[in-house]
Amino acid sequence: MNTRVLLGDVLTEVKNGIGKDWSKYPVLGATREGLAPAKEPPGKHPERYKPVFPGTIFYNPMRIMIGSVAFVDDDAESGITSPDYVVFRGVEGKVDSRWFYFWLRSPLGHQCIASLARGAVRERMLFNRLAEAEVELPDFQTQQRASLVLAQAQCQIKKLRAAISVQLNDLSVLPHRIVAKSLE
Fold first, then answer.
1. Measured between alpha carbons, how far is 111 from 162 in angstroms, rounded to an integer?
2. β-bridge pairing 57-59 and 11-13
């Protein structure tokens, strides 16, 4: 059974920085593809970088409209991300974080984001705007069942991408092999 909820009641924002232990963690970013190593090292105040552990969703509020959202899955390494990023997770028993991540990246989530984003020059969405959204969510058990299927699908997708990558690499060297064969 679906229920209308205020996202601020079912999501918890991570506001505090990691502190002096920041150097123990890789710096992570959010792209259209999801989780990725950050392009730049920590800035002047690395202790302010926010922790992103398994079950955490995060995004750059200035790039949310293009889908730069990441989820730290159970098998991913914990890290830190820019203090400018919005970092949050689902409240246990109310929102499954993996399920919500995929919902946020879905057409329903994009529609929600588009209705909430604000900005005179560039649209952005901070957590307080996301928290104001009232959306319809399935019950927690349904989210968990879907989350399990999504996790299994992601595992299969990773394997397929790896296999395709090997094949693409083989194809890219094919012209070189043809030239080498022609010289024999």
1. 32
2. unpaired
CA distance 65 to 72: 20
25 within 8 A of 41, measured Cβ to Cβ: no
> Closest Cα to residue 34, out of 7, 62, 73?
73
Structural domains of the chain in order of their starting residue, each with its CATH number: 3-139 (3.90.220.20)
Confidence (pLDDT) at 120: 64
43 neighbors 96 (Cβ within 8 angstroms):
no
CA distance 152 to 137: 22
pLDDT given at position 137: 94
Write out pLDDT tens, residues 82-104: 999 999 999 999 999 999 999 99
Q: Which residues of the chain have pLDDT under 50?
A: none
Quote the CA–CA distance of 131 and 116 in Å, as a whole number: 10
